[in-house]
Please model this.
Amino acid sequence: MLNRLLRTDRDERGSIPIAIIVIFVLTIALGSMMLSINGSLELTRTDQNRTNAFQFANAGIDQALYRIDSATVPTTASGSYVPALSGSRVVSFTDAISVGSSTFSIVATKTPATQDRVWQVRSTGTDPSGRQRLAIATVAATSLFEEGFFTFHQFYLTGNQDTPVAYHSATCPTASPSCELAKPVPGALGTNSTFEGSAATTAAFVNDWTSFRMYGRATQAAADTACDSGRCGTTPKVVAITDQKAIDTPAIPAGVQGCPYGGNISNTAIAPGDYSCGNLTFTGMITVSGTGNARFWVNGDIVFASGSVVNRNQPPSRVQLFQTQQAATGGNLCDAEVWALLYTPSLAIDCNGSHQPKIYGAVVADYHSGTGNHFDFHWDVDSIDAVGNGKYVVRNWRECPPGTTDC
Model:
């Protein structure tokens, strides 16, 4: 009996180290498991914080888009909104909004500052943990001048051609010959109708322009045929676009003023601003004072009187004309020199011989016709970004590391 008790005691004493080892191993395993779980939770929290911060950064892009698209970009600061001005124009703004302990801050900048169509937006989002992410996007409207010269109806070309030439008004506002870009100029002519002309003129234009954009053509063959009965060359020179281009005149902005001088502007300097006119006539030498742009919304005819000179040696964007198609005859600009952006879908450019206008800038017109040496047109490449249709969308949306300028 005693021996049996002694053996039992020895057996129990031998199991104690085993139990201690088992408990130790289990403790280590449990600790490792807890460390693994805690690490996974930490990674999850970090990823969630990053996601939350990026969502707030995205909210800043949305806020900037709303401001720009609704034209809620005042020239005076209000709350967290702070604009930066060039003359009387907003060229950038900052904004910041807090939601609880989360925030997003916005920096929106016109790119380049001389136009209203393209903005770069940078938005930094911060979540409650302090984690930050940066979203960068381009907010842009469709250009009114996708082509250097566009007609809704016939585009007729004839005569000996020394132009078109292309230049950048931002670096060469006087359009001097030394600034002319190499041909073919980096842009297109466009029409909803057809290109017509003499064989020699068509050949010259094929050589001088990068492409011919033919709207309302279901097939490439139809586009080729519409470009001077196939003489414009084959793709990619001629570009077929299925839908016809519609009139897309920008909305009249808030605070528009009445037409200066009752719409008869003669030998004077126009103050920068936005104007609404019935009929509009320019006579003599016309300039724009200061550094801003003079923009006109015209419900009737636009006439540049014979011999008139408008905005000479200045960027064409300083004079912008927007016309509806309600005009009776559309107006006239024969024998005039015009440095402007002409979104004039009622304007018929129909001049003969030596009475051709000199046009610097970009044009949307009803049609172009006439005979003799003509089409004295100097395309300002910067006009592509000068004016949009006022309907903004977000493009090239991307996530970047905080503190960077781009990625």
Remarks:
- The chain has a mean pLDDT of 86.
- The first helix runs from residue 2 to 69.
